[in-house]
Design goal:
The complex is a heterodimer of chains A (281) and B (456). Chain A is mainly α and 281 residues long. The two termini of chain A are 24 Å apart. Chain A has helices at residues 2-29, 33-59, 67-89, 95-112, 124-130, 133-168, 173-177, 181-212, 222-243, 249-271. Chain A contains ten helices and no strands. Chain B has 456 residues and is α/β, with parallel strands linked by helices. Chain B has three domains: 2-160, 2-Layer Sandwich (Beta Polymerase, domain 2); 165-298, NAD(P)-binding Rossmann-like Domain (Rossmann fold), CATH 3.40.50.720; 338-447, no CATH class. In chain B, 57% of the residues lie in helices and 12% in strands. In chain B, helix 12 (259-267) links the parallel strand 8 and strand 9. The longest helix of chain B has 39 residues, at 299-337. The chains are: A mainly alpha (281), B alpha/beta (456). The interface between A and B is medium-sized, with 27 and 30 residues.
Chain lengths: 281, 456
């Protein structure tokens, strides 16, 4: 079954590559007819991606929450959330940024080694920490929240680019291909609106589990500190946007900064083997 | 059948000539009747818009057809035909088809990519169809041209960007606000250009119109036309706060809106402010563009957007030409099938395939000597030739008549020369026979010999 999961994984990546090319080509040529094929390739890739995760989980008696596997789950959540955004907001431009992002995550996961049985390398304390339903939900919530943050960051990036184009008062090719300021701002705001509660709930579950298992100095772990910082940045965005009119450029930069922290956290989580929050690199 | 096009357009004739040679909708039926009443004209369509008047016709002879249509146009506008000929362009054969496809795809329009021409061509065709002036050939040509127009609009971005100053302003506003539904515009100076821009904004969803003018009555007049509100010019800064878009076109010689004056209002805005300065000299201090969430475009900026969009349309037009090439090839494949010689060749090739198949089956059951075999073969050839000689000779004769291609079409239908859409059952067998017949025709073209062994 692992072999089938492996094949499904690579086929999913092949479809994501095709979708990336199609979304990119659609943005460049603005040929709407291509968007259907791009959505189809993403959908086919997503189904294979789902099958790969399911088959691997069945073969290994549950998905091992290693760094690589979590990346695969995050890529899966990102594509799923992107599909929802595409369906609900009727926008396709984001696919040109988000599908390649999911693809890169899967490639990194492959480099890290999806199928390595790293749980065996863990200390007994770490294994006890993971042995609880709360950890699974914690990972799922954080994955979906990160997908939301990624979409907010993609929208903010487009906002910043579009705003520069408008300020420069030049109708370049990029100008005609980017979505409007209002739309990017709306996508960013709504993405954070639902991602932030998921992130908060994910953090609370993680903290509860750490307290429950009596991990000493759990709050001093670099990943915990960084995730606290991420939480603070997005909380600040929500408050400033809601109460102080931080719409526009300032809000976009704040969201981009928040997402840089999310990426930094993901890199740190997989590269620094110190602290209690290490479950295979 | 011979395609003929005689016409004039904004490229060849000034408006003083174009306005004389128009065909209003209510007069088209009579004009078409006159046109198709000419012996050599089999079918005709008159396309008459403000920028062009064109007569598309299928004639029995090219030169006579051109002459007849030119005479018809000269008579219609009561002009000397030699004088009129200076402004006319004449196309024949393949060039007519290409011209129509380019016209319908809006590649020949004054503003390349404008959408109106497709609808105008459809209306012209419907008039001709209603008047009974079209038949098989122009029906096919015009219907295919509409497909071309549709393909060009959906497969290229030829009509997507604004190519006028006022539309460019609307397009830019949409880049800021996404949709203009429910937005409010403040107009400073009730001039013609600002009114045109407001009209476009309102038709795109803007509902609030505030007008400030030094002469308050003019502000009231303009506001009334858009169900808006006139505001005193001295207090227009108060209204900026309520507006999403500001259009300025006053005759002031100094800046009416300055950065310092706008900054407090801009600071407290949650929504962006889009300023359009179409006045010369400019009404709005260019430094206003430095304020956060404020976007300022003057007349030169808007012209720059229009120019860039026009360049992009030209690039898309090149892609549209490729689509036209594809559709031309498809159309002429159909035209060729309507010619009598290929039809007669196809009938004979098909008969030869059937003859050979049946002969082979019969010979398997018989034990014949070589001499007997040759006699039977000659017999089958003679039967086929005699059966086909009369119909094909008559077909060739009537094909030059006015409705000759209808006989050709009937022959193709009766002999089943078009592939069946039914890919199974009897349809599959017909397609197989046609395939074999086409192979025979291809071979004949290569070798230059007659069809099969019968020497027909």
């Amino acid at each position: 079954m692992l072999e089938v999961a492996f094949v499904a994984f690579w086929l999913a990546m092949a479809f994501y590559v095709a979708a990336t090319v199609l979304y990119g080509y659609q943005v460049v040529t603005r040929r709407a007819v291509l968007s259907w094929y791009a959505t189809f390739a993403t959908g086919a890739g997503f189904l294979l991606h789902t099958a790969s995760i399911g088959l691997r989980s069945s073969a290994t008696d549950g998905t091992e929450l290693t760094g690589a596997n979590v990346l695969v789950l995050m890529a899966w959540a990102l594509v799923l959330v992107y599909f929802l955004v595409e369906h609900l907001m009727k926008v396709k431009t984001y696919g040109a940024l988000l599908v390649p992002a999911a693809l890169v995550m899967m490639l990194i996961a492959q480099v890290l080694g999806v199928s390595r049985g790293v749980l065996a390398d863990m200390t007994p304390e770490q294994a006890v920490l993971l042995d609880n339903w709360r950890v699974g939900i914690h990972v799922a919530l954080i994955s979906f929240a990160n997908a939301g943050y990624a979409i907010a960051a993609a929208a903010s990036l487009m906002y910043v680019l579009m705003e520069r184009q408008l300020k420069a008062r030049k109708a370049t090719k990029l100008f005609s291909r980017l979505p409007s300021l209002a739309q990017t701002e709306r996508v960013a705001w709504r993405s954070v609106l639902w991602a932030f509660p998921l992130y908060s709930a994910g953090l609370i579950l993680g903290v509860l589990r750490a307290i429950e298992t009596d991990v000493s100095l759990w709050w001093a772990d670099i990943r915990v500190l960084l995730s606290g910082l991420v939480w603070l940045v997005f909380a600040a965005y929500l408050v400033l946007r809601w109460r102080h009119g931080w719409q526009g450029r300032r809000g976009a930069y704040l969201l981009l900064a928040g997402f840089v922290l999310v990426v930094a956290l993901a890199v740190v989580a997989r590269t620094i083997p110190a602290g209690f929050h290490v479950f295979g690199l | 059948m011979h395609f003929v096009l005689v016409g004039l357009s904004h490229k060849t004739a000034p408006v003083v000539v174009r306005e004389r040679l128009t065909f209003p909708a209510d007069a088209q039926e009579r004009s078409l009747a006159t046109l198709t009443g000419i012996e050599e004209i089999r079918e005709a369509v008159i396309l008459s818009t403000c920028n062009r008047t064109e007569v598309y016709a299928v004639a029995s002879d090219t030169d006579i057809g051109v002459d007849s249509v030119t005479g018809f146009l000269a008579d219609h506008c009561d002009a000397d035909r030699h004088e009129l000929a200076r402004y006319l362009y004449i196309e024949t054969g393949e060039a007519v088809v290409r011209h129509l496809f380019r016209v319908v795809a809006s590649l020949d329009s004054m503003v390349v990519g404008e959408a109106q021409i497709l609808g105008q061509a459809k209306t012209a065709y419907e008039h001709a169809l209603g008047a009974g002036a079209t038949a098989r050939v122009l029906n096919k040509l015009f219907r295919q041209s509409f497909e071309v127009g549709k393909r060009v609009r959906t497969e290229t971005a030829i009509g997507e960007s604004a190519v006028s100053i006022s539309y460019a302003a609307v397009e830019l506003a949409k880049k800021v606000f996404d949709t203009l539904d429910g937005r409010t515009v403040l107009v400073l100076g009730a001039g013609e250009m600002s009114e045109l821009t407001v009209r476009h904004l309102v038709s795109n969803g803007v509902i609030g119109v505030l007008v400030a003018n030094r002469t308050f009555e003019r502000a009231q007049d303009m506001a009334a036309r858009f169900c808006g509100t006139a505001v005193p010019f001295e207090r227009f800064y108060d209204s900026v706060h309520d507006a999403d878009i500001v259009i300025s076109s006053t005759a002031a010689t100094e800046h009416v809106i300055t950065k310092a004056a706008l900054a407090p209002s801009a600071k407290h805005r949650a929504q962006p402010l889009f300023l359009i300065d179409i006045a010369v000299p400019r009404d709005i201090d260019p430094a206003v563009n430095d304020l956060p969430n404020v976007f300022l475009y003057d007349i030169d900026d808007l012209s720059g957007v229009v120019e860039a969009n026009l360049e992009e349309r030209m690039a898309e037009a090149r892609r549209a030409e490729a689509i036209i090439d594809e559709e031309m090839a498809a159309f002429f494949t159909w035209v060729e099938s309507m010619e009598v010689v290929p039809t007669v060749t196809a009938i004979r090739a098909k008969a030869e395939v059937i003859r050979k198949m049946e002969l082979e089956k019969a010979l398997k059951k018989l034990d014949l000597t070589d001499k007997e075999r040759k006699t039977v073969e000659a017999l089958t050839c003679a039967i086929v030739n005699k059966m086909l000689h009369g119909p094909t000779a008559r077909l060739k004769k009537v094909s030059s008549d006015k409705d000759g291609y209808m006989y050709v079409e009937a022959a193709r239908m009766l002999y089943g020369l078009e592939d069946s859409e039914d890919k199974h059952g009897p349809g599959a067998f017909r397609n197989l026979l046609n395939l074999r017949a086409r192979e025979i025709v291809e071979k004949q073209k290569e070798t230059g010999e007659g069809i099969g062994d019968c020497g027909a």
